[in-house]
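Hi, here's the filled form for the chain we discussed.

Project: internal
Contact: R.S.
Residues: 227
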Amino acid sequence: MAQHYNLEQQEQLATLKAFWDKWGTPIAIVAFALAIGLAGWNGWRYWQGRQAAQAAILLDQLNVSAASNNRTAAEQNFTVLRNQYAKTAQASQAGLRLAKFQAEQKEWDAALETLQWVSSQSRDVGLRALAVLHSSAILMEQDKPDAALSALQQYSFPAEFHALRDDRIGDILQQQGKTAEAVAAYQQAHRALTDTSAYRPLVEFKLQALGQAPTPSSTSASGTLQR
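And the returned structure, exactly as it came back:
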């Protein structure tokens, strides 16, 4: 019985050896690759977290600089963020904050340049959309309604920004003296907003100021206004 067990064990060892001779190297390579991949993933997550933390510090510094009207320091903070931490959300947030500060100083071209960077470089679709909306507001301040309207119509806004886009289009059309078209834009913006939206009463006020009341529609609330 013991001799039979030894023979069986030897057969198993021989089979295992043959299997390992054939597949041992590929298995070892795969295992090594998985280990390297896991280490790389953990390293990348650590690096990403560190980037975000460092960018957050610079964003805080930019906010302090802007609050104290130190434009030079604020722009320097943003330059570092843009050059070294461009892929972080904080860099895009900093761009929006700096552009607001620049606009308050009536540095329109500088603000537009900053917003252009955010709209073209940010990974966050919401921040990109906000940059385009802010750009259109600055163009309106510069009395460039056609350019403001073009900026809005050429950008593909996510659905959740359609109401803000159409409301801004209404503002531009009203600035151009196109009251009927402005009303249509406001109506579309109103339909895209929910009953609980804090922004909806403002759109209603704009309609009422033009002698209009909000009207329901069977069309999709997120449709694009055609011109």
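Let me know if anything looks off before we file it.
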